[in-house]
Specification:
single chain, elongated
């Protein structure tokens, strides 16, 4: 059990910046990643940052879809 806690502490203390994490998460939304870059990021990224960036990215994506639908409905394009 203590080995898992040490692994978690080590992962949370990883040095990658939040900006690098945002970039990695953004690329993962597109599904375009080189294998070597993905492996390097997984070794360096802080998992807490990845979770926060993923939730924020998903929220921005949903908000963008809602705004797009409202714009289409409001402009009368759907009514045709």
């Amino acid at each position: 059990m203590s080995d898992h806690r040490e692994d978690l502490r080590e992962a949370v203390a990883r040095p990658a910046s939040f900006g690098r994490t945002l970039r990695a998460v953004a690329w993962s939304f597109f599904g375009v990643r080189k294998g070597a870059e993905h492996e390097r990021d997984m070794a360096r990224l802080n998992p807490v940052h990845v979770i926060i960036a993923g939730v924020a990215g998903a929220a921005v994506f949903v908000l963008a879809l809602v705004l797009l639908v409202r714009w289409i409905i409001g402009s009368g394009v759907a009514a045709g």
